Amino acid sequence: MNTQQTKQSLAWGSLLIFFGLVSLLELYFDLSPWMWVAFLAMAGLGTFAIYLTDRTNLPMLIPTYVFWVLAGLISLLLFNWLPDELVPLFVLTAVAVPFLAVYLINRTQWWALIPSYILLGIGLMVTLLTYGWLGDLWVPTFVMFVIAIPFYVVYLRNPVEKWPLIPAGILTVIGLAFLLATGAAQYIVAIALILLGSWLVWKEYAYRL
Questions:
Q1: What predicted TM-score, i.e. pTM, was given to this entire model?
Q2: Which of 39, 64, 79, 208 could form a disulfide with 48 if both were Cys (CB 3.0 to 4.6 A apart)?
C-alpha cells in the first residue's frame, strides 16, 4: 500500500472513530447544535491538515468541504440568517460549487458545468416555487427555457456548428407555447417591442459613433 493510500485509510479511520465518540457523547450529554458545529469544523480542519501535508491528495478536500458546508449551514440556521425556504437553494448551490471549481481550475473539464448548471437550475426553481413566484404552466416554461440555454451557449461559442440551434429552437418553441397558455401574451408582445426598439436605437447610436 502506497503512502497516499495509507494516509487516506488513516484519515477515514480516524474520522469514523471521531464521529463514533461524538455519537456516544450525544447519548449521554445531549450535545447542543453549536457543539455539532464545533465538531464538524474540527473534522474539516483535520482533513484539511492532512491535505496540506500532501497537496496531491486532492480527495481529502471533499470531506473538508462537506464538513465546513454543514457547519456553515447549521450556523446560519442557528443565527436565523438563512430562511427555511432558502435551505434547498443553499444545499444545491453548495453541491454545485465543487463542480464549478473543477471547471475553473481546468477549463478542459467542461463536463463539470453540466451538473453545476443542473443543480443551480433546480435550486432556483425550488426557490421560486417555495415563494409562490412560479406555478402552474410557468413551471414547464421555466424548465424548457433552462434546458434550451446551454444549447444557445454552445452555438454562440462556435457559430459554425448549427446543430445546437435545433434542440434549442424546439425547446424554446415548447416553452413559448406554455408561456402563451399562461395568458402572458400581452407581456411578451410588450417586452418584444421594447427589446426591438432598444436594439434599433443602439444600432443607430453605434453607427453614428
A1: 0.69
A2: 64
